[in-house]
Amino acid sequence: MKIISRVGLTVCTLTIMAALTQRFEILPYRIAFAALLVGMLSSSLLAIFTSGVLLSQLIRKIRVDMELIPMILVCMLPPVIAVSSAGLDGLSAPSITDITSDTAHPPAFRFIDASDGYRENSLVYPGDLVAEEQMRAYPDIQTVIVKLPARVAYRYAFRSARLLSWVVVGEDRSDFQFEATAKTPLLGFANDVVVRVTPISRTVSAVDIRSVSRFGRSDLGENARRIWHFFAAFDDQVKKVK
């Protein structure tokens, strides 16, 4: 059983190290993510195997090795944290990685360079099929209309992005648009965001946002959550001055 304990400790240590290399961008994305996936899979398989050994001991009514219990818990920790961070909604999220409040005229990226850093997904909006899937999954993500001049709405939107710890990489104050990089809380996966404020009249503006994952076929609901958080922060900024 000491062998199982040593293997478990090694696997969990390597999984944590892989997560840290991904979070702090120590290694290239492909290497860090591959190591993380191997670590997560190994932890899960070891937890299942160790649980089987423990169950076998209980069924045969032989002495139960109590060291197996903490080992099972330790091995289960990485996959449980990963699943809980995505949530049940994230696990059932559609296979899309580009979410926007304006699917008819989505904000276009102008400052973020598609060749800057590793990415699998394009910054070009994928089109009607993704828009339809988004509408089915997140019908509440829509353009926000505010009774504010565009320059004021833009200032509040920009401030909201800062409060959410996004890194602004470019802006056009005359056109009321800025772009930023946002990272997921746990593993720090980078996502690209563009926010656009459109003047409807001198005192009314439309606020739109688009969030795109750089990797994967599904964002596990992360882009939708980011948009909800942004609009919540924006609403708080507006309420403070009323």
- Overall mean pLDDT: 87
Largest sheet: 6 strands, antiparallel
Low-confidence parts, pLDDT < 50 over ≥5 residues?
none
CATH second-level architecture of the largest domain: 2-Layer Sandwich
In what range is the share of β-strand residues?
15-25%
CATH level 1 class label of the largest domain? Alpha Beta
Task: Describe the model.
- This protein has helices at 2-23, 29-59, 68-91, 128-137, 150-163, 222-240, and strands spanning 98-100, 144-146, 167-172, 177-183, 190-199, 205-213.
- It is an alpha+beta fold and 242 residues long.
- It has two domains: 2-86; 98-240, Alpha-D-Glucose-1,6-Bisphosphate, Chain A, domain 4 (2-Layer Sandwich), CATH 3.30.530.
- Strands 1, 2, 3, 4, 5 and 6 form a six-stranded antiparallel β-sheet that branches.
- The protein is elongated, with a radius of gyration of 23 Å.
- The chain starts with a helix and ends with a helix.
- The model has no long low-confidence stretch (mean pLDDT 87).
Pick out its properties.
242 residues; Alpha-D-Glucose-1,6-Bisphosphate, Chain A, domain 4; 2 domains; 6 strands; elongated; 6-stranded antiparallel β-sheet; 6 helices; alpha+beta
